[in-house]
Write a structure and sequence with these properties.
Distance between the termini: 34 Å
Strand order of the largest sheet: 17-14-16-15-19-20-18-21
Helix content: 25-40%
Low-confidence stretches: none
Strand content: 15-25%
Oligomer: single chain
Length: 445
């Protein structure tokens, strides 16, 4: 699935999943080889058009918007190019979605070390924006990258890794689409494994009291807090021995829990809240109390990934892990002061520090706060107040989620910000890979 549509008059339109960003590319190409990616870039340069590679449009910012640009749709450049089962190194084409990747790895008896809960993104888009899952000892998806192949602004094809062009590698693993078009990604995978999942509602005060134990005592832990409810949905996922048998939820239970309750019914609840805002708080409390416990085991990607059909707008920031409780308490106090109610829950996850220049977890163990609002409901006051809270502890915005920061603010948050800008200028001196979002966050003047 791409974010592109062609109208009856032949005009191409790009829209992201949340329907918060729309763009009209000047040209569109659908390469099916590295050579064709290079040709598309050279053609755009000749026409003096900026270039933007497109994935599935699952970012909430305009990072992938290709307005008046040469759009390169990578949906035809997919699949696994090579796989070494012994080492776990798998090279995959950039347009491959995480869903497609999971299926291919499953056939090989391999798996990603960690994943987020959405699999619609392309692998190149996911790493370029810093997509992550949760786990105190684990980093984001970009930390699983062993090597990259990029097509640069002059059409040349280069490889980078920790040993080959290491500075470019440090920049490109979370490259924001500003360095070139990623053509292939080599990932460190491992033998397929199963997870024991335990998901249950827990009083929020109890979650806070047990937070350190929850974070360090499980391979993957996250929780969802409904802003007007007293309980949080706590998800704990732990690895099982490689020879363990899986015990997934029955198909009827899966349909009831995930399709019916978390999508169909919840969509209806959100629509009611949007139509009658004074009902949001009681509906929110009802959603919190209606959560049901469930325990099951399954192959890792089936546990990590959750179907999300209810659309939303989202902002997410990474804060130092030691600031988690303080930020949560301030967020709880702030929500009660808002003029407009909040329909959707807050998601809280953790990740280990890494060494990737533009990663939100660069050199610090991090806690992630993702806040959401249902489309059509006011969110600006909520998101602005949230940004003020996380700013007090040096919060770093997820590159694919809504935020208001510019280069002046981001420079203070990322120690290697200027190194990233230097490498970007070296590989793209004419600013071929640019759009309004990148001009704002990187000061491309």
């Amino acid at each position: 699935m791409t974010a592109l549509k062609t109208s009856a008059d032949g005009q191409i339109r790009w829209t992201n999943w949340a329907r918060t960003e729309i763009a009209a590319p000047a040209t569109l190409s659908r390469p099916a080889s590295v050579e064709q990616i290079s040709e598309a870039i050279n053609t755009a340069r000749a026409k003096k058009l900026p270039v933007k590679a497109l994935g599935t449009g699952h970012s909430f910012t305009a990072i992938a918007a290709a307005h008046a640009s040469a759009a390169i749709d990578l949906s035809g450049w997919t699949g696994v190019e090579s796989a070494d089962i012994e080492s776990g190194l798998v090279t995959v084409r950039a347009g491959t979605t995480i869903k497609q990747l999971n299926a291919a790895l499953d056939r090989l008896g391999l798996a990603m070390i960690n994943l987020g809960d959405i699999d619609a993104q392309t692998i190149s888009g996911a790493i370029s924006t810093g997509t992550h899952g949760t786990g105190a000892k684990l980093g984001g998806i970009a930390t699983q990258v062993a090597a990259l192949q990029l097509v640069l602004a002059d059409g040349s094809v280069v490889a980078c890794s920790a040993d080959e062009r290491p500075e470019l590698f440090d920049a490109a693993r979370v490259g924001l689409g500003a360095l070139g078009v990623i053509s292939t990604v080599t990932l460190r995978c491992e033998r397929s494994f199963c997870l024991q999942a335990d998901e249950r509602p827990v009083p929020l005060e109890e979650v806070i009291e047990q937070l350190d134990e929850l974070i360090t005592g499980h391979d993957h832990m996250e929780f969802y807090w409904f802003p007007y409810g007293r309980k949080a949905l706590v998800k704990r996922n732990d690895r099982l021995p490689l020879d363990a048998a899986v015990r997934p939820l029955s198909r009827p239970r899966q349909f009831f829990e995930y399709t019916l309750m978390e999508n169909v019914v919840f969509e209806a609840v959100c629509r009611i809240g949007r139509a009658v805002p004074k009902l949001v708080e009681p509906l929110n409390r009802l959603s919190s109390t209606a959560l049901s416990p469930r325990a099951y085991s399954d192959w890792s990607h089936r546990v990590f990934v959750t179907t999300r059909n209810v659309r939303f707008v989202e902002s997410e920031y990474a804060v130092p892990r030691e600031s988690l409780v303080d930020v949560l308490n301030e967020l709880r106090a702030m929500v009660s002061t808002l003029k407009d109610p909040v329909m959707l829950p807050v998601e809280i996850r953790v990740a280990a520090a890494d060494d990737i220049w533009m990663s939100t977890a660069y050199q610090r163990d991090s806690a992630y706060f993702a806040i959401h609002q249902y489309p059509g409901m006011r969110y600006r006051e909520y998101f602005d107040a949230f940004e003020k809270i996380v700013a007090q502890v040096g919060g770093r915005p997820h590159w694919g989620k809504m935020h208001s920061l510019d280069a002046a603010a981001l420079r203070e948050l990322y120690p290697r910000f200027e190194d990233f800008r230097r490498v970007r200028a070296e590989v793209d001196p004419d600013r071929v890979f640019r759009n309004a979002y990148l001009e704002r966050v990187l000061d491309l003047t």
